Amino acid sequence: MQKPVDIAIIGAGNRGCKYLTLLAGMPDKANVVAIVEPDTRRAAHAATILRDAGLPEPVVFAGCEDMLRSCIPAAAIIATPERGHYSQAMQLLDKRVNILIEKPVATTIEECEAIANKAEEVGVVAGVCHVLRYHPYFSELIRIATDGSLGEVVSVSHRLGVGIDRACHTFVRGPWGIPRLTSSMILSKGCHDLDLVTAITGSHAEKVYSVGGRHFFTEESRPDGSAERCINCAIEKNCRFSAVDLYRRRKEWISGFIPADGETVSEEIERQLSKGDYGRCVFACENETVDRQIVTAAFENGVVATVTMNLFTAEDSRDTHICLTGGEIHGNGRRIKIFPLRGEKTVIDFSARTGAPYHAGADKAVLEDFIKAITTPGYKMLATIDEVMESHRICMLAAL
Ligand SMILES: NC(=O)c1ccc[n+]([C@@H]2O[C@H](COP(=O)([O-])OP(=O)(O)OC[C@H]3O[C@@H](n4cnc5c(N)ncnc54)[C@H](O)[C@@H]3O)[C@@H](O)[C@H]2O)c1
Fold it and tell me: 16 C-alpha vs ligand 1 centroid, how far in Å?
């Protein structure tokens, strides 16, 4: 029987802890030997995930270099903010560590190529957490569009609704609101969507156009009577973007609020509301990111595509319309409707599966694929850096 692969988690935040939890549930395949996390509260929280699963505690390091001086794991999952991916990946590859890297791979195409080239040179796996490639609904959408049964793809119109709660938490109040410190929204969020488009078109984009901007979450749009913080705001009760409503009343988007020792999550929520970034009025956040954007691409094989991204949707949503020479496909994120130009309409219903945790099982599937690629000679995982390079290139060209 294959020995479990020794894996390190680099960055024990939102994504890192999700992978850690999933790896803790597959001890026959993986053994988490190290956690690299400079935030001591987060590192301690991550260690409890393994302890609670009855597994040995990993060694915790504050940086990748520190870990590599005393421990060289067989594999590492890079789940840090994207500005750190390039240097962490190169350090790990120097020691021939197989890497699975969160999207976006890096913030320039040169860095993405350098990581892919280095991985090839040293002969290790370099996978990407492009989890939609492993998602039951999206992988089926790609299969139906590309298996030839409805002819050739002509056009793809895709809509990405970021969802107003995610938008306020991650992009307006959170670190992804300042793209020069993280990355553009079209890269950080939309790379999944452009990847879906390139998986469907199967071609190189020869023209990319992009329009959009930031018009709403600005000081000029700030309503009369609003305060700097929702907690002191006279009009908070009627505000759709209220942090008090999101975190204190609905208790949503709080998984990253890790309380200090001896404190509760409710205390951490109150600290955020009174002092933290997440308690700020959305119109006073110095956010610099777009709140609407449309990307149009023309591919070498003649396919044309648009991706419309905006923040103002009640839920996170993805909707895709594909025209082919032999029919039409419409997917709303839960159901795929197939309309052949002649013949019966078919509906495939994924509603019972798409709400399942961890991206409907896709987070676990990407881990399993990564481990299989490490342990099976000649096996290539589905989402490699080479595979997603084209979608990253389009996002970088489209960034506003
Ligand atoms: N695949 C997906 O669906 C998906 C979803 C959300 C985020 N992401 C991506 O995952 C990555 C991480 O996002 P997140 O939401 O988990 O962010 P996060 O802020 O919750 O976690 C990042 C963690 O990295 C730690 N960190 C920072 N610098 C570090 C360093 N030098 N070494 C080690 N750790 C360091 C931080 O302290 C933090 O705990 C980003 O690239 C993001 O775009 C992917």
Answer: 7
